[in-house]
Model the fold of this input.
Amino acid sequence: MSNFTINKNTAFSMVMAICIYAILDRIIPPSVKPVFNLVISKNATGITDIRQQRDIQLVKKISIDRIDLADKSRFRHAKIGDIGFGNDFFVDITSPFTVKQAGEYIFYLGSDDGFIFTIDGKELCSWANDRPISKTPCKMNLNIGEHTFVLNYFQGYGNAGLIMSYAYAKDGEQYIAGVNSKYIEF
Ligand SMILES: [Ca+2]
Done:
């Protein structure tokens, strides 16, 4: 016979503790470092072009640590979960960043569906319509100091996703937007 016994009260307390943990785990959203502020807007009509007239029904705002939102073929953060609206929504991100080494940079915009990428008011690249997730490289020479990028994105229907990374052209190593390096800080 074991000396270790669990009376009814202890067992009840343990079950309660597990239940409370499970409930809290479900109701408290996981938090990530708030680096980028996303404005996610549900459109009332189908979206087929990033530049089409918007007819916004509903807006939500969420902060995330990195632009790595293509989990399970959804507009989804690996830790926070689904953050889009399913179909027909726009996402707008405006963010400052600091360049630490002058030179040519390549920004890789992976999107399903379309996007427009702008730095310091200059539109660098875009994909107007729908597509399966694909990467578009966008190059720009940047001076040391503060800059601002704007990323506009839309999801029409079906699969969705958005990933942004960057590289210092001479180096070539790619970093996800939100990951600081010796080249850029967000
Ligand atoms: Ca899509």
The chain has a mean pLDDT of 94. Residues 8-27 form the longest helix (20 residues). The pocket of calcium ion is lined by residues 112-113, 130, 155-160 (CB under 6 Å).
